[in-house]
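Handout, page 2. Input:
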Amino acid sequence: MSSSAIELAPPAIMARYEAVIGLEVHVQLATATKIFCGCPAGFGAPPNTNVCPVCLGLPGALPVLNRRAVELAIKAALALNCRIHPQSRFARKNYFYPDLPKGYQISQYDEPLAEDGYADLVIDDVTRRIGITRVHMEDDAGKSIHDGFKDSDRYSYVDLNRSGTPLIEIVSEPDMRSSQEAYAYLTELKQVLQFIEVSTCDMEKGHLRCDANVSVRPRGEKQLGTKAEVKNLNSFRFLREALDFEIARQVALIESGGRVLQETRLYNPDTGETASMRSKEHAHDYRYFPEPDLAPVRVSKEWLGSIRSTLPELPARKRSRFVAEYGLREYDADVLTQSRAVSEYFEAVVAVSGDAKTAAHWVMGDLMGMLKTQGKELADSPVRAEDLGELVKLLARGELSGKLAKEVFSKMFASGDAPAAIIEREGLKQISDTGALEAVISGVIAANPKQVEQYKSGKTTVLHYLVGKAMQATRGQANVTVVTDLLKQKLG
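Output:
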């Protein structure tokens, strides 16, 4: 069915249907080595160099489970409110593909690591709870690279560096009803996993990938429709676009008298359409059976408790606290908790300055703006949180004007120096001494007789002009309050 036919479907028809969406999210765990061998799990090495007999699937090579991978998987499951099983077991998921050297993937099937979790989303001020069916561990396959377009000039390459890197798969309940909800759910997962440092979730490096199961049904209907799976969505934008197209495709198909097939589809971002890849597999197609070379994973209460104790404050809790404790707007709290690094930087600024709202303004505005302009991450910021806190404190005390503070901040960003050192070196200290400012005020009055006469005639708004002239004469270093008071006194 072409996209043009789908675009012609009237909104009234689309409104009669409801989408049912579940996501399967694959996350690469932030371990130094692979899940069943000692090969590096890093990204970017020359093809087929981070490999060994285990991840190449050579005969006689035996897997050994990476304890750190299990700890990170448990940490993720706890953060997603899951129930951790005292025992889980690995299984072989058999299928044949050029980048799967063993001929099977080591995964978890009927005895997963964790089940029965959830994630709470806030969309348009309404809270939605999305159920999480299970979190299980598995190893990744390699990567196929296809090159060329003509049959006579087409090549496929296999890079097995990724083979054996540790993954968790987070399987949701079919609780989402729109691409917006799916987008929000994936955003929440990414934020939580980055906060607890389980994964970088870098989609460009394949550390976060998503498959979407989607079906449609008439509104009010309880029975699920036939679902199609859209595989390998590697960006948030592609997830939203693929779901919108697939929902429209299925509605148009049903309305025209057709039947939705259970199949696997791929999204083509160039056309904005999904296309059939293969008929959908069932569990029995993979011929799962227990992995004979790995013992069951047993999680003791003591081990579980020690992992739980390492969890930081999670994003949702931190957002609520920022609003309640610091009096921030919901929007500001949301921005400041987009990453753990930003939230901790902000709180370090507040600890020094004692002024949360001004600190939020400077972190979200001047600091983030300058970092974006320079193409830097917060970790590379030359301005330490403690120094920005000192700058905010000087501003709050009236020892710096807003204009001077911005000038000092710019020099802080360029040099990495503390504000006090810059103020002393550059002679940027605010002038509040009335004796020193009286001469400046007298000069401004003498140089602007027309505005002085307007003020005395009742046009008091002209005072702003005269204050500006005084600030200009002092290079912005005069205390605005003192200047304003002196002008009023001099002008009677």
